[in-house]
Known about the structure:
The chain is mainly β. It has one helix at about 35-40; strands spanning about 10, 20-25, 30, 50-55, 90, 105-110, 120, 155, 165-170. The chain folds into two domains: about 1-60 and about 160-179, Alpha-Beta Complex (heat- and protease-stable fragment of the bacteriophage t4 short fibre, domain 3), CATH 3.90.1340; about 85-155, no CATH class.
Amino acid sequence: MSxxxxxxxxxxxxxxxxxxxxFCNGQIMQxxxxxxxYTLIGTTYGGxxxxxxxxxxxxxxxxxxxxxxxxxxxxxxxxxxxxGGAVTVTVTEAQIPAHTHxxxxxxxxxxxxxxxxxxxASTTAPAVxxxxxxIATQQFNADPNALSMEGGNQAxxxxxxxxxxxxxxxxxxxxxxxx
Length: 179
């Protein structure tokens, strides 16, 4: 590897950390051993700031450019060192776009008392789950159980396709100068 900047984070295709590099797994490090690196990252990722500091923890995470305020057209800012996102998410009713559900009905007389796999149908006497003379422009009060809620208000995976690689951080290298 070419000479790296101290604190530089790279993606590495190996399953080990090369010499002078460590995995970005949130390890607690001794300030006295890595004082120069501590002066760059401090306790941004953890540690007590007296004897210890932590490396970034990028296990099962993606790095994103830090920002104090959201860029135009985006709703989230990612301040330096702050994690974000969620592995799973539950979609709420407020997040679902407005839509309709088709109700199939027939003007023919009902032939069964079971609504399973059947249409609303006409009947000569009011009956639960049936409609008297359903016409497209006619409104009626249907049984509250005629249309059921769908979904289980359960979280679903919120992870894009990924490939597991190693994030590594330079523990000994060129101390970056301020511009």
